[in-house]
Amino acid sequence: MSRESTVVHQQYINGEFVSGTGDESFTSENPATGETLGTFERGTTADIERAIESANAAFEEWRNLSHIRRAEYLWEIYHELKERTDELGEIVTKECGKEISEGRADVVEAAHMVEWAAGDARHPHGDVVPSEIPSKDAYMRRKPVGTIGCITPWNFPVAIPFWHMAVALVEGNTVVWKPAEQTPLCGQVIAEMFDAAGIPDGVFNMVQGFGDAGAEIVDSAAIDSVLFTGSAEVGHEIAGKVAQQPGTTCACEMGGKNAVLVTEKADLDIAVHSAVMSSFKTTGQRCVSSERLIVHEDVYDEFKSRYVELAENVAVGNPLAEDTFMGPLIEERQVERFVEYNQLARDEGATVLVDRAELDPAEIPDGHEDGNWVGPFVYEIDYDDAGELRSIREEVFAPHVALLKYSGDIERGVEIQNDTPYGLAGAIISEDYRQINYYRDHAEVGLSYGNLPCIGAEVHLPFGGVKKSGNGYPSAREVIEAVTERTAWTLNNSKDIEMAQGLSADITTDN
Ligand code: NAD
Which of 247, 263, 339, 454 fits as disulfide partner to 278, beta carbons 3.0 to 4.6 Å? Predict the structure, then answer.
């Protein structure tokens, strides 16, 4: 679906689509064809300020509604996501290039997130806590923090915004959202859904734009919490700024240099299947994609030959076709980054096993010559204990995959797995429960999988990393921590004042 080329889509502020203050616009391009999907106003400082003002003004009234009433607006959106899954999945695929089952899954994940948040409105929202003093009632209660700034990436352009916004809104906060500049059409469609749901003016605001607009949200003293999902470079900058602003909090979820660990006890059918999905699904552009395959020497040769054969043959093509496995990369800049890291691996001593970085013209589907096409790039390289190889420690975000052979026990495999500043996701393939449990307890990751690909998320599980990959969990249950304040509330049911810990409540005077 492409919108009329003459239409310049506006910002959504204070309950309506309005023209921003800037005079610049930008376009959304289909990464598989280069076709323009729409034109969008580029948000300015003044637009962000206006959106934040309207969110601040709407807060009191919104927080005074019950959780259940607030959730009713989200249920409207849930039904729309369910009814329009195929249509919206196609928009996702056209705008970000993921093959069509992934486009639909993005919308389904968004629906699940909204379902979880709206359903949670009827669940308990605090704790009743025993007091040392029998006449006291003690509770932990939660309050919304205020206006939440949401900044999201392009690779899950429908699901991730709802990870951020669904819980934030049901908990009583108002929102200013900046979608990724690569996927503004998905942003437009989501804003239209909030508009159709009749959400009160100012509760949800969206400003389209680039990193400068995101930075305005972060810098604003009138934002109470920032939810960010994206690259480590940007996320760390945001966390650093927010740390200088007392009273503002942030939850940042970022990238990874994830690995699949294949031990000598692995079932190689599971290992090869899992590794191919982990490294090439979404053309390697999932935050959990694996760019490292750490394989025990006893099974290395067989694993390598089977993996390489599949990497040589995985179907790259039109992402709207059901039989495509890999679509294009998101943009030209990302193709350049991929090519640079492939060269870096060579410079660092890699032996290249598969190089489909530049696809044969015959592999590019008709009418798609202007797409950002690449295929898998796979190499083997000696693992370096000194930590000097950048190619096996830095996130490329593309189908750039290193095979690392190891010898020794599970402890050695996990040591290599942990040798990266990131800590997002990892998988172990083994038939030995002791190895699996050792991995579970010692791999430095926030998400881990046993005998499965290193991808996949269900919205009611925490989704976030450790180390350089994350400092919070902007999804489902865990996002509640980022968008609410806790109050410890104690009420005395007695006429006497009695203190915990044996503290005297007597007031003595000189007389
Ligand atoms: P990105 O960091 O370039 O951009 C993310 C968002 O931040 C965009 O909306 C962008 O406009 C905005 N932004 C850019 N500079 C900013 C600044 N200085 N201040 C405020 N906002 C700014 O990331 P991307 O290319 O859109 O997404 C890919 C990255 O996201 C990868 O590193 C991937 O691993 C990561 N990611 C992480 C998760 C997760 O849950 N951990 C999920 C998806 C993607």
Answer: 454
